[in-house]
Structure formats: structure tokens, C-alpha cells
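>> Question from a student workshop board

For tomorrow's exercise we were told to take the sequence and the ligand below, predict the bound structure, and bring the output to class. My setup keeps failing. Could a helper post the expected result so I can at least see what it should look like? The ligand is GLP.
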Amino acid sequence: MRFIVCSDYAEMCAECTKQISAQIILKPNSVLGLATGSTPIGVYENLVQLYQNNELDFSGVTTFNLDEYYPISADNTQSYHFFMQSHLFSKINIKPQNIHILDGMPADIEKECRDYEKAIVRSGGIDLQLLGIGKNGHIGFNEPGKNLNATTHLTDLTETTIESNARFFKNVNEVPRKALTMGISTILRSKKIILLASGFEKHMAVQSLLTDNINTQTPATMLKVHPDVLLICDKEAYEG
Ligand code: GLP
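>> Workshop helper replied:
Here is what the output should look like for this input. Compare the format with yours to find the bug.
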């Protein structure tokens, strides 16, 4: 795994924006795997800016988001559907039919997960997967100690994750207890992976990722088996 330590959040976002822009310029029909959470927001702002400056064209780009709460409707303001529309998709020229996000209210959960995997394969596979990291080392919603060779599946969220994500909801009781997520196997099939980590609260997870052997208590360590992973973090996340 390669890593870049940036001085602050803005520099981390600028570095990641460079990588994603290069991907789209070199391959205009790229398939991107996208993440939610507060960490990638600055990257999405930069991408919107590049689009507005006519420096990036998203018309050939296809996207697959990592995860979605369950149950949640797409128009709920806390859904990842809503997050992606407001931070990125409504502000760029991506074709709606090229956007893929797991349905948070599927009639048939297993079919939803199977179809998502098939759609990724049909698209030619994810060229570049963007990831954040949970305080407990989760990626997507692949929580510690779970079946970490899974493909897309329904999972229970840990108390740590529910508490961390409560900041986006009115109170902790409103945070869904479950989510649909790409599995570690799905993520590892991406051709290239960029993992972002910012701030002191991610230090333990970053340290574990860089120093521990692969283990299921820090799901991000599973990325060590992938040949092309780039960790971009800021000083606070790196040094603590
Ligand atoms: C959620 C998402 C993850 C994200 C994590 C960290 O749990 N499912 O994909 O990486 O939060 O979020 P943040 O960037 O807000 O710290």
C-alpha cells in the first residue's frame, strides 16, 4: 500500500481530486466507486468546481456507491441517495442512468444485492474505488469481526458506528441499525482503491491499517491484499 500524508484536510482533498480527475481524463467512460460520510465532501466540491470550469466531463462516467442505510427511502434527507444528489450528482453532467446506489427499501434484499453485483460486473468493473474509514476501521459498512469475504449484503451496524453517524440525525434513535453495503470482496475487485482519512479521530484506524497484519477487527487491513491501494491522509490522522 502506498500512502501520502498531507498537511491538512484541504490538501488531502486536492490530492484525491487530482487522482480522480486523472482517471476520468485518461478514461472518460470510467466506472467510479463512491463513498459518503463527511470525509469526501471536499473532494466532491472540487470535482464540481472542475466541471463548472469545463475541465472535467462526467457524461461518460458510471458510478456505484458503496452503501446505503436500511431501511431508508431515497428521499429521506439522511439517505446516501440524498447525500450524493446534493453534494455531487445534481451539480455535474453525469447521466442519471449511469448512477447506481443500493435501494434502502428493496422488496427483496437478496435480489437487490445480487443485482448490484451483476450491474458492477456488467459495467466492466470499478476502475477507481474511493473509500473513507470508520473510527473502528470499517470500510463501506463492513464492520469489525464480520464475514469479511462477503459480496454486497445486509449488515448490522455496530454501536460505535451508530454513535459516530448520529451527528447527521436528530438523535441517536433515528440512526438505522442496519445497512446494505458492498462487501470486502466487492471492494477488492476494484482495479484501484483510494482510501481517505482525516482528523485525529481516525488515527487509531490509520495506525492499525499501517502497522497491523490483516485482521478482521480492522476491516481496512484487508486492503493489504490489493495491489493498487493509495492511502491519502492528513497529518492529524497519521500522527495522532
Ligand atoms: C460511514 C460510511 C463509510 C464512511 C464512514 C466514515 O459509516 N458508511 O463509508 O467511510 O462513515 O465517515 P466520515 O467520513 O464522516 O468520518
